[in-house]
Amino acid sequence: MVTKLAFSALALAVGVERLLELRKSRTNERRMRLRGGAEHVPRQLIWMKGLHTAWLAGSCAEVWLLERRTSPKLAGAAVLAFAAGHSLRRSAMRALGWRWTVRVMTVPKAPLVKHGPYRYLRHPNYLGVAIEIAALPLIHGAYLSAATFSLANALLLRARIREEEAALSGALRA
Predict the structure, then answer these.
(1) What residues contact residue 32 under an 8 Å CB cut-off, 6+ apart?
(2) Which residues contact 167 (CB under 8 A, 6 or more apart)?
(3) Which of 4, 24, 160, 163 is paired with 48 by a 20 to 30 Å CA distance?
(4) How far is residue 106's CA from residue 171's CA, in Å, rounded to a whole number?
């Protein structure tokens, strides 16, 4: 019971963090628009929000309703993986600064960010999110949630990255 409560508290904390990030994103969106920024593929945002909400709720539901038990070894590895994914994602957000948003937005002629994790990876934020989505449910043995939401995220990111690359190519030429 105690581990389920702790897991639920962690999922709640991640949810609150995501909500605060939406606020930061809106501030950055306004800054980008003031610099001539444009949004691309706005319909994807609702899918992203839905995925993250379902991931957190589904993970908690699996733990409670299917009576998932925690395994100390798996939980330890999953906590480390989650922390690594979280650190990578936060580092990517810091590197992007005012250009980080949850929406796909570009500013004409703005150079690509090539510092921080962007020195090594093209989309470090998405890798961090993918790691978090897989690792968080595994902290308490929610294998179905880890697999289901990892697959859903991969499908969403496949489309999102394609659209983002097209938008970045167009903005660099503008």
Answers:
(1) 98, 99, 101, 105, 107
(2) 40, 41, 104, 105, 106
(3) 4
(4) 6
CA 112 to chain centre: 20
Residue 39's beta-bridge partner residues? 105
- Domain residue ranges of the chain, discontinuous segments joined by +: 2-173
Architecture of domain 2-173: Up-down Bundle (1.20)
**How far from the centroid of its chain's Cα atoms is residue 130's Cα?**
7
Express as a percent the part of the chain with pLDDT over 70: 98
What pLDDT digit, counting tens, does each position of 56-86 carry?
999 999 999 999 999 999 999 999 999 999 9
Contact 138, 62 (CB under 8 A): no
Of 101, 89, 102, nearest to 45 by C-alpha is 102
Whether this model's pTM surpasses 0.90? yes
